[in-house]
Write a structure and sequence with these properties.
By secondary structure, this protein is an alpha/beta fold. The protein contains 10 helices and 4 strands, in the order H-H-H-E-H-H-E-H-H-E-H-H-E-H. The protein is globular.
């Protein structure tokens, strides 16, 4: 997929995610007997097109959405506050180069247009080419050749209400990032890599803990490659 394709896909999907809430996907639904892997027949539905926060562990070509998820997940609390109050709402776009593309600024403009006069603060703190292991200090970032945990300055110090997140890399380190979005620096205290190694650079320093003071657990919208490739297909069939 071209860079434009990635950007447009995320921009379009983010609108539905933020306005209607995210939904999870369960294991792929079985195809009707006597048929191949087919999407469910289009039927009248009062709900918006489905979106995903995660993909099945193994994709086998079957339609991936769980119907209960489509109707059962409420909007993000941050978006509800943006729509109904005058409180400041802070949305952070975080990850790698995909998160740096123009889709996020278009999404910000769309939110401002949809909720005029509200206190939206939305920024992008992504680091191109910095995988999950790079973000937490398990590996160096090629741009500055430094190895340290980036989350305290990129995320915790900014104190977002909602994080829109996409990253590639080591799955164990990805899991620590997701945990850290809820726990802050404490998530890294007992860090072990996928090969059960301690990596001192991952743990927050005293200065980083000071930087992260006051951080509260944020809501997280997880973007995945599956979302980008399937969202338009799914929306055309539901």
């Amino acid at each position: 997929m071209t860079r434009f394709g990635w950007s447009f896909g995320l921009w379009a999907a983010a609108h539905a995610w933020l306005l209607f809430g995210s939904v999870g996907c369960a294991a792929p639904r079985a195809a009707p007997q006597g048929q191949g892997a087919q999407p469910a027949a289009a039927a009248a539905r009062p709900t918006p097109a489905p979106t995903w926060t995660s993909a099945p562990a193994a994709w086998n070509g079957e339609f991936p959405c769980d119907e209960a998820g489509v109707t059962g997940h409420p909007p993000f609390a941050a978006i509800e506050r943006l729509a109904t109050t005058r409180e400041e709402v802070r949305i952070l776009v975080y990850g790698q180069s995909i998160s740096e593309q123009a889709w996020w600024s278009k999404t910000k403009a769309w939110l401002q247009q949809t909720y005029p006069g509200k206190k939206l603060v939305m920024e992008e703190h992504a680091r191109g080419g910095c995988s999950s292991q790079c973000l937490i200090g398990h590996a160096r970032w090629f741009l500055d050749d430094m190895q340290y945990n980036r989350l305290p300055e990129d995320v915790f110090a900014w104190k977002p209400d909602l994080i829109i997140f996409h990253v590639y890399g080591d799955h164990i380190d990805y899991g620590y990032i997701m945990r850290a979005f809820k726990e802050g620096c404490d998530a890294f205290e007992n860090y072990r890599s996928s090969d059960n190694m301690m990596v001192p650079q991952v743990r927050c320093t005293a200065a980083q803990r000071q930087m992260a003071q006051g951080y509260e657990p944020a809501e997280v919208l997880v973007q995945s490659d599956f979302v980008i490739s399937a969202s338009s297909f799914c929306s055309s069939n539901w």
